[in-house]
Amino acid sequence: MPHGHCYLWEPGVLWLHIASDALIALAYYSIPFTLLYFIRKRRDLPFNWMFLCFAVFIVACGTTHLMEILVIWHPVYWLSGSIKALTAAVSLPTAYMLIRLVPHAVELPSPTALRKEIAERQLNADRLHESEQRFRQAFDDAPIGVVLITPQGRFLRANRALCDMIGYSEAELLEKNFQSLTYPDDLDKNLSLLTETLAGKRVSYRMEKRYFHKNGEVIFARLNACLIRNPNGEPLYFITHIENISETKKHELEREKLIVELQSALARVKTLSGLIPICGWCKNVRSDQGYWQTVEQYVHDQTNATFTHGVCPACAEKFKGDILKAGGRLDQEAIEKLLGKLDSNESKPGA
Fold this sequence. Notes:
- There is one protein chain.
- This protein is of the alpha+beta class.
- It folds into 3 domains: 3-107, no CATH class; 142-249, PAS domain (Beta-Lactamase, 2-Layer Sandwich), CATH 3.30.450; 285-347, no CATH class.
- Helix content is 59%, strand content 13%.
- The chain has 13 helices and 7 strands.
- The strands form 2 sheets. Strands 2-1-5-4-3 form a 5-stranded antiparallel sheet, sandwiched between helices. The protein has a two-stranded antiparallel ribbon with strand order 6-7.
- α1 packs antiparallel against α2 (48-70) and α2 (48-70) packs antiparallel against α3 (77-107).
- It starts with 10 loop residues before the first helix and ends with a helix.
- 10% of the residues are buried.
């Protein structure tokens, strides 16, 4: 018997139920399409499978209302009951999963919390950007060389001071490693310190080493390297400060050379402090090798001193006549004649 008999085929009652069920079914069918559109646009949403469960449940509910309209004229109660049973079968799992989902959904941040978190992240991003700007400026404008190097030794970044120091552009350095620019005698020590730092035996290391300039010149440098690691402790890169000390080394070498020369001179001077064999007649001196030399030659060989000849006041007074005969000129020839007379006078008995 059609369901319309229950309504006594009263037109007002019939159309009330028909219109209500039709509008409800229309609303039910529109909701799943809206949910599906929303899911397609927001694939990043968590629990999107729950929206699909709701869509199936709502479609089933809308179909039951359509069946209510159909059974008014056609007594297909088995079909109508089956659809209701299907709706029940869909609704129970949906309700169960929704209950399980609610605690996780409650943990999702609210719009206010999201706005606050976004504001904090933006503030942190601004601070990070400002910090990076300061680091970049300090890196690029540092008065000494600053470079970032991988644990394997390749250059990641270099500032202008380092490029000026060794003659390579930054682009050229990025294609090289520090091993190729290091003086061979300094490489083993450098690699040993680097290996110890990577092994965790030290946080940083410092050393003096030599680099090859692009033009082949050797550059003396003082290096200070610090290893930067990620939060997991894995090595990322070395930040290395390199100071050019070539001028300092040049002065040190000159000073060491001067010290050696002074020590050598002192050693030669000390040889004059003992007994020196000298001839009582001609005043020649016997050298350590057994050769007889003039006093001037002997002192010159021992100290590199050079003699100039002159006449002391006493001798000038004593040989005034000879000096006047020479016309007052005390050239080398005149001086030697005077000295010859002085030697002959001193050699005479009682002179």
